[in-house]
Design brief:
mainly alpha
Length: 115
Amino acid sequence: MQLSQSSGFYEKAGVRWVRKFVQNGDVVKRITRKDEKEQRVIKDRKAIEKYLKTIAMYERYHFVCLVFFLLTTFHAAFYKAFVYSAIIFAGNVFYNILPILLQQYNRVRILKLLR
């Protein structure tokens, strides 16, 4: 379900901004200032395969949450709770759609490195 094979597509969608604030993102790395070698997730080909599986797991998790909260959004709208519906939808964008795009961006970058 990859939206694009171009990292530029994801960068235009704001994924680099999102990457700053996620768990193990740029801000966290800057604050903790661990040794650069310790921070590297990808050290060899085996680590690449493991990381790609991790990316797929995160993407599936956020996709399931996306569907659940979309259904919740529609349920709230059906019962005319439009404020709740809007809040749930906005939260869904930030908590699920942006992380899915981030995982796809990471996959594109890693696969580009493999080529």
